[in-house]
Amino acid sequence: MQQLPPQPAYILHSRPFRDTSLILELLTPDYGRIACIAKGARRDKQRRQRALQPFAPLLVTLMGRHDLKTLGPVESAGQSLWLKGRAVYAGLYANELLVRLLPEGDAQLSVFAAYQQLLAQLAALTGEEQGIGGAVLELPLRRFELQLLQALGSCPELDFSPLGNEPIRADGFYRLTAEEGFMPVHLPAGAAMRAGDFSGAHLLAVKSLTLAIEETFVESGSGESCGAEVLAAAKRLCRQILSPLLGNRPLKSRELFRQVYGTQ
C-alpha cells in the first residue's frame, strides 16, 4: 500500500462510516482538502477518537492509491486550540467553507497558512472580548474569506478597474460584475449607493485587510476612521462573491449560529 510522507493537517469535518470508523475531511498544505478513512476510530474512544478533534494541529500519515485514503499514524503537532463562545461557530464556518469550496487534492499552502492564522486569532479571544463588538470576530473572518477567495482565483483585484485600465480611486464608486470586476459608476451628489455598489475608499481599505497582520482599524482615503464601514463593505463583498460559489444549499454553521445567537 502506497504511503504518503507525514503531513501537517487539521480536521475540517468527520462523519460515521460503517460500524466503527470515520470518514475525515482534512486540510493539508501539500494536498489541500483530502478525505480519508479513520478505521476503528469510533471504537477506540479513549485514544484515537479523542485525538481526532477539530482545530487541533496534527501530523498525519495517509496510505492508499485511491482518492479516499486510509489514515495511518497520527501525532499531535502542537497544542490544541480551544475556541470559546462565538469563536467556535466562526471556526466551524471556516471549516464548512473549506469543505464546500476547496478542490480535492490540490496543494494549498497559502490557504493552510491563512487557516492557521485564523485559528490563532480566534483562540486568543475571550468571551468578554467577543461581547464587546462584532469587529473582534468580523476582522479575522473577513480576512480569511478574502485570502481564501484570492487563493481560489475568485476574488477580483480590489485596487484596479479594468474599464479604462486604471487603479481604483478613493473618491470613486464602483460596482462588481462577474465578467469584468469593478466597474466605475456615477453617483449623483446625495444619492445613496445600491446594494452592489462600493466606494473606492472602502475597496482600498478592504484590500489592506488581506495584507495587515495587526488587528487594527483601517483609514479611509479622507483620513477618517471607517473601521465599522470597511468591515461592513468587506462582508457585503465576500457574500456577493461567495453566493454563486456556494449555490443554493445553505451553510449549516451559519444556520446554527443564527439559532444560538439570533443574528446573521
Explain how this protein is built:
- With 264 residues, the chain is of the alpha+beta class.
- It folds into three domains: 7-76, Nucleic acid-binding proteins (OB fold (Dihydrolipoamide Acetyltransferase, E2P), Beta Barrel); 86-144 and 250-261, no CATH class; 160-245, Recombination protein O, C-terminal domain (de novo design (two linked rop proteins)).
- Helix content is 37%, strand content 21%.
- Strands 1-2-3-5-4 form a five-stranded mixed β-barrel.
- A hairpin with a 3-residue loop joins strand 8 and strand 9.
- Helix 2 (86-101) runs parallel beside helix 5, helix 2 (86-101) runs antiparallel to helix 8 (252-261) and helix 3 (109-123) runs antiparallel to helix 5 (135-151).
- The radius of gyration is 21 Å and the shape is elongated.
- 31% of the residues are buried.
- Residues 213-226 have low confidence and may be disordered.
